[in-house]
Amino acid sequence: MGILNRMKTLIKSNVNDLASKAEDPEKILNQLILDMQEQLGEAKIQVRDTIADKKMLKKQLDAATEKAADWEKKAMLAVEAGRDDLAREALSRKQEKEQEAATLQDSYERLAANADQLADQLRQLSTKIDEAKRKKESLVARAKRVEAKNQMATTGNAISNNNAFDAFERNAEKIEEFEIQVEASGELSGSVQEQELEAKFSKLEKGSAMDDELAALKAKMGFKE
């Protein structure tokens, strides 16, 4: 798995873990950047070690190539000295070093390609971290706006919930009805008392009228009081 792929896996895992804990968005982003920087440090070590291995292979390759050339020179000296047996031995050693050099050349080329790829991924990772740092403030601001909208929506839902308001209105109406009933009872009681009082005065008035008629009748009949 490449450096960038491991970084994507790490970030995804950390995002899910932090989000499940309902962490503050700014804390999440800061932690992710720290994780990126830690991964960047590990990637630098990997690239450094790969480059070191490449340099070591290059030295071994150069040494094997030089040794093969040296055995070839020795074979020539043996031929000049009429020592074909030594020339054959030198050529045998030359072939061994050439085979060793060929193996080292193949390993060196593969390691060099891998080192170049790692170095390229390291540059990409470093660029992404710089970009993440630049975007962090914008993302934090966006997260705060979303949180504010969510709070407004929650408040709106609470306001739109008329259960408490309806109950208050119903009780207010009952109180008003009770007040009206009390006032009506008072008015009715006052009206009855007034009617009773008027009846008493009416009775007195009728009694007085009867007394006057009785006196008139007595006077007409010649009775004197």
Task: Kindly describe this structure.
The protein has helices at residues 3-20, 25-80, 84-160, 163-221. The relative contact order is 0.07. It is rod-shaped, with a radius of gyration of 56 Å. The chain has 2 domains: 3-161, Orthogonal Bundle (Helix Hairpins); 166-225. The protein is mainly α.
Write the layout of secondary structure elements.
Elements: H1 3-20, H2 25-80, H3 84-160, H4 163-221
- Tally of separate domains: 2
Number of helices: 4
CATH class of the largest domain: Mainly Alpha
CATH architectural grouping of the largest domain: Orthogonal Bundle
Helical proportion, percent range: over 70%
Q: What spatial form do the alpha-carbon principal axes imply?
A: rod-shaped
Q: Assign the structural class, choosing from mainly alpha, mainly beta, alpha/beta, alpha+beta, or little secondary structure.
A: mainly alpha
Mean pLDDT: 75
Order of helices and strands: HHHH
CATH topology group of the largest domain: Helix Hairpins
Q: What does the radius of gyration come to?
A: 56 Å
Uncertain runs are: 18-22
Q: What is the count of β-strands?
A: 0
Q: What percent strand? A: under 5%
Largest sheet: none
Kindly report how far apart the N and C termini lie.
141 Å
Give short descriptive properties of this protein.
single chain; mainly alpha; Helix Hairpins; rod-shaped
